[in-house]
């Protein structure tokens, strides 16, 4: 009896959790694998989408990083690591711009203001910048 | 199409593992248990094959891997002729409940509610770079040292294997591997224990905890399969050969999958040594795991890649113990008043505790190892909150298997399959009688 009661409780808790994460509830295989991992949209989700959008504009082997400008100077590492998987033909580097000197910067959401970089493309989730 | 091909790679794993069906004690298991064991064996075979090719300097390719794997599959398939195919009892209430639990996990995965962040940040990028390098390439790890370079390679190799099938990296297939391994885990628990209600409890508890631990795409699903095989074999099987083989296979797989797999192997070793008091079996079962661990560490040292395992040399911050325990307790609540842990503990407490000694021992030892791991950080809170929801699934799994062992009138069946006169067999609800498969064959 305890086993069945617990199973029902866990099933209800699972459904409640899925509901808490938010809709749409019948959207199978959404745009990214991170679309509904939290009620609010993760910037790393947009890092995935931005990587896909920027990839055709990036030369093979180009050094590139991904960052969220408003997080400066303590950028979230997971953003450029996302690029490491999403941009297999390029050479993603850490966001230490002075050390790694990337040729391209993919900026999530915010404007990336840096004297050495100019915007080359704008997307709904951010923009692509190229070193001058 | 990419993800279909990527998923196909994971579906090939149990076919590769059919090779273990050549063993008589595996052939005598229930259908579900056989497939679960085959999935684990196939996973390990593929990972070892890809590692060996890299060590020999042979580049991975479909034209090389597929013929080798096909030969292994054929060698296993020829032994499946005339085999008994039992039916999974989904039409019982518990069976339907278990299927619902699995489907909930599938739903969470295909709607992107259970995806593991580390797949996107670490496992996936490492696998893609290895795929592009054509092997387990140290240069990749030196170029991007952020990729937890000395972490055991099985999960990354599986992802690279899937990438090899699909050519592009199949992100959805990577997360869908989670439910596939979960299904194999449930098949092993059900098949070894013969207990449908107990399997239902394990299925629903894990399905719920998965929603908070985000295992899809990470290494936990294969790790939990290996762990379930080891714990359930020690708890429910009587055939000494079956126990020794299955635990050896599972420990080797666990050690090759995650850093925590090594502590799990030590916990199982100590349990066999101290609880079961079988030193010879303890050393035999851990030998393949020790060999694999040694080979991996040799690779790490030779290529100057020591990172995570180097943590063993870090100082211990004993003063953090209260914080570690408090944070772990907070995580273990799973937003549900610790019910995922309290329920199996209650079932064990009102059942026969002696029957659950092996899983209890493994649960305690792995919990202790988790605490020991976290006290190596001066400020461990963030680390615990981000990683422990998955790490503490191991003691939870052990407790759930312990609950199954304790709550039913489990009768150990002799290797010849003869159940003592007048007693009922575990979980079957059927009268006792001779059965060639022993306890596991009574499904």
Question: In a few lines, what is going on in this structure?
Answer:
The complex is a heterodimer of chains A (132) and B (443). Chain A contains 4 helices and 5 strands.
Could you explain how this protein is built, in words?
The complex is a heterodimer of chains A (132) and B (443). Chain A is an alpha/beta fold. Chain A is 34% helix and 19% strand. A five-stranded mixed β-sheet of chain A has the order 2-1-3-5-4. In chain A, a hairpin with a 2-residue loop joins strand 4 (117-123) and strand 5 (126-131). In chain A, helix 2 runs parallel beside helix 3 (77-86). The relative contact order of chain A is 0.15. Chain B has 443 residues and is mainly alpha-helical. Chain B has one domain (2-80, 88-442). In chain B, helix 11 runs antiparallel to helix 17. Chain B is globular and about 55 Å long. The two termini of chain B are 37 Å apart. Chain A binds chain B through residues 2-4, 6-7, 9-11, 13-15, 17-18, 21, 25-30, 32-37, 44, 48, 77-78, 81-82, 84-85, 88, 94, and chain B through 3, 93, 97, 100-101, 104, 107-108, 110-115, 117, 119-122, 124-125, 128-129, 132, 144, 146-147, 169, 171-172, 174-175, 197-198, 200-201, 203-205, 207-208, 211-212, 214, 217, 335-336, 339-340, 343, 346-347, 350, 407.
């Amino acid at each position: 009896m305890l086993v069945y009661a617990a199973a029902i409780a866990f099933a209800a808790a699972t459904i409640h959790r899925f509901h808490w994460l938010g809709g749409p509830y019948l959207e199978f295989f959404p745009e990214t694998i991170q679309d509904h991992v939290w009620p609010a949209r993760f910037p790393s989700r947009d890092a995935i989408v931005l990587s896909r959008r920027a990839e055709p504009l990036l030369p093979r082997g180009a050094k590139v990083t991904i960052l969220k400008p408003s997080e400066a100077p303590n950028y979230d590492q997971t953003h450029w690591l996302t690029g490491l998987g999403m941009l297999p033909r390029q050479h993603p580097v850490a966001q230490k711009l002075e050390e790694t000197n990337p040729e391209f910067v993919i900026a999530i959401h915010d404007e990336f203001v840096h004297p050495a970089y100019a915007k080359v493309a704008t997307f709904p989730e951010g923009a692509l910048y190229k070193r001058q | 199409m990419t993800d279909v091909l990527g998923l196909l790679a994971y579906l090939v794993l149990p076919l590769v593992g059919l090779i273990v069906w050549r063993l008589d004690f595996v052939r005598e298991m229930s259908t579900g248990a056989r497939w679960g064991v085959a999935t684990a064996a196939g996973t390990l075979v593929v990972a070892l094959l890809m590692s060996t090719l890299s060590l020999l300097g042979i580049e991975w390719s479909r034209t090389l891997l597929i013929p080798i794997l096909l030969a292994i599959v054929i060698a296993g398939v020829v032994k499946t002729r005339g085999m008994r195919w039992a039916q999974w009892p989904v039409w019982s209430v518990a069976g339907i409940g278990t299927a619902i639990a699995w489907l909930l996990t599938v739903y969470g995965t295909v709607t992107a509610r259970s995806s593991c962040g580390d797949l996107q940040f670490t496992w996936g990028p490492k696998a893609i770079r290895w795929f592009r390098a054509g092997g387990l390439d140290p240069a990749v790890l030196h170029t991007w040292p952020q990729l937890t370079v000395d972490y055991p390679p099985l999960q990354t190799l599986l992802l690279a294997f899937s990438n090899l099938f699909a050519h592009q990296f199949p992100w959805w297939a990577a997360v869908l591997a989670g439910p596939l391994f979960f299904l194999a885990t449930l098949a092993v628990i059900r098949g070894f224990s013969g207990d449908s209600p107990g399997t239902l409890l394990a299925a629903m508890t894990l399905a719920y905890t998965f929603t908070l631990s985000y295992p899809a795409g990470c290494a936990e699903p294969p790790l939990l399969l290996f762990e379930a095989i080891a714990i359930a074999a020690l708890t429910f099987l009587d055939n000494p050969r079956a126990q020794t083989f299955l635990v050896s296979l599972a420990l080797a797989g666990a050690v090759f999958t995650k850093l925590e797999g090594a502590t799990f192997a030590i916990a199982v070793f100590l349990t066999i040594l101290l609880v079961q008091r079988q030193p010879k079996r303890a050393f035999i079962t851990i030998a393949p795991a020790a060999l694999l661990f040694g080979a991996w560490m040799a690779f790490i040292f030779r290529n100057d890649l020591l990172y995570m395992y180097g943590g063993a040399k870090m100082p211990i911050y004993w003063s953090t113990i209260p914080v570690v325990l408090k944070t772990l307790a907070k995580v273990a609540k799973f937003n549900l008043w610790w019910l995922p842990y309290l329920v199996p503990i209650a079932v064990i407490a009102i059942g026969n505790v002696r029957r659950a000694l092996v899983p209890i021992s493994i649960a305690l030892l792995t919990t202790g190892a988790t605490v020991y791991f976290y006290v190596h950080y001066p400020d461990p809170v963030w680390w615990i909150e981000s990683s422990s929801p998955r790490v503490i699934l191991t003691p939870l799994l052990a407790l759930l298997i312990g609950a199954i062992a304790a709550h039913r009138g489990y009768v150990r069946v002799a290797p010849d399959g003869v159940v003592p006169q007048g007693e009922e067999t575990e979980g079957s609800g059927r009268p006792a009688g001779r059965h060639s498969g022993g306890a596991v064959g009574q499904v």
